# Entry
Amino acid sequence: MKRIKCPTALAILAVILVLVVGCSRGTNETDSTPVVGTGIGTPSNTSTSERLAVIPSGSSAGLQTPLSGNAQSGIWVTGQGQVSLTPDLALLNLGVEARAGTVAEANEQAASAMNRVMDILRSHRIAEKDIQTQYFNITPQYDYRNDRQNLIGYIVTNAVRIKIRDLKDTGNIIDEIAKAAGNLARFSGISFTVEDPSSYMVQARELAVKDALSKAQQFATLTGVRVGPLAFISESGSAPIIKDFGLRGATLEVAQAPTPISGGELEVQITVQAAFSIAPP
# Structure
């Protein structure tokens, strides 16, 4: 067997060392291209956050979707749209409450008062589908004396929610119910809304998107870049289209003047979050 000469072995060893050093450098080198990011909060905070991450035009990362990777690149903005509208529907919460020594007596008083209430609602052309029972309770009433619990009677409560489509008639309905049911009448609140909010939502959404586009363009102009294609858009929420008013006191006494009720004005608000890629200048 021939032995490998020493100079040949040394040459082979030198080649191996060169290859190992080259691979080590290739794996440890990092991209030194700077990435500049400015913003308030993070894109996940959709209510107030606006984020701008500027990637130099020479980097391919600037053309990727802002959702790729942990570093959310691109121009992130929120847009808001708000539309005012006039309510066309009143939601009135009312009921009767009777107290008596027995369940039968309390229930009879409550039923009689509620029948008078229903007669008034029908006289104002409130449809059956616009009257919904909210709850019906029979509760024992106790008196506590000398650390003893004594049953003194029962409370029967019957509450409904009604839809009033003629808002001008709301005050008259309240007054007539208060008169017919007397001290048994209970009013827990009134709210105003619209029967079909879809058209107003469309308008508010359009305004929100336009607001987001305007903000993205402003960021791009201020930072010397161009707005790229839309990469992400989401509707993060909308304000409920309802306005509540509490009716002061559990009962309403009959007054000389009619109860003034005004629906006022409502607002619907849409918020969107959008992300745009950054195009080369």
